[in-house]
Specification:
mainly alpha, LOB domain-containing protein (chains A, B), 0% strand, homodimer, LOB (chains A, B), 132 residues
């Protein structure tokens, strides 16, 4: 650590076995311990140099989110080499389709109940819940 | 083309300005014309060598989907350097939350109609309008 005169490298530089210089673009986002494991995935999938260029090209305020999403994409790709995080997109798209189908089915049921009651149509949410 | 004795390189090799050898791992997935543009994004985000390793490590039956999802991730990252395709995941997650809320609200309305049809107690407003 800094007390000994030999500062610990960040997780990225630890993984890359290089000196962690002042202002290292990875240091704020990859801590010495867990950061090295996260960075290993990033390096394997994207390459350290590509990610360094990408982060350097962003305003520093955006780098934390960029590092987090890149780390997520890298881990997803190692976990599922064929689909990566796109598997998550497919699953969510399917969930949306299922929810929309349930919503349509419930709307149809509500219409039936309205007819059974003698109404021509189902009241709109605005009619049931007037704005206050 | 093959007729002239100078086969066109695939889109990846065209972009990388290298000879497209027989059995090139990119050739089935990157055509000569549009493939070069798609590969440019892939090379910038992932690096040709990382993607080559990834595809080579997969059974050939899985490579088409892997190339397509990698191409999608690369283009999403160029379009949105901070969130990449994770922006799509966030948007879908929000859509799921909204649909679930509409579903709950519709279920509550259906309950009201059931009560109006035959039961004594009216639901309280909190049951009619769940927080959205």
């Amino acid at each position: 650590g800094a007390m000994t005169g030999f500062p610990s490298p960040c997780g990225a530089c630890k993984f890359l076995r290089r000196k962690c210089v002042n202002g290292c673009v990875f240091a704020p986002h990859f801590c010495h311990e867990q950061g090295a494991a996260h960075f290993a995935a990033i390096h394997k999938v994207f390459g350290a140099s590509n990610v360094s260029k990408l982060l350097t090209g962003l305003p520093s305020i955006d780098r934390r989110e960029a590092a987090a999403t890149i780390s997520y994409e890298a881990q997803a790709r190692l976990h599922d080499p064929v689909y990566g995080c796109v598997a998550h997109i497919f699953a969510l798209q399917q969930q949306v389709v299922n929810l929309q189908a349930r919503l349509e089915s419930l709307k149809a049921q509500a219409k039936v109940m309205a007819y059974q009651k003698g109404e021509a149509r189902m009241p709109r949410p605005a009619e049931l819940c007037p704005a206050v």
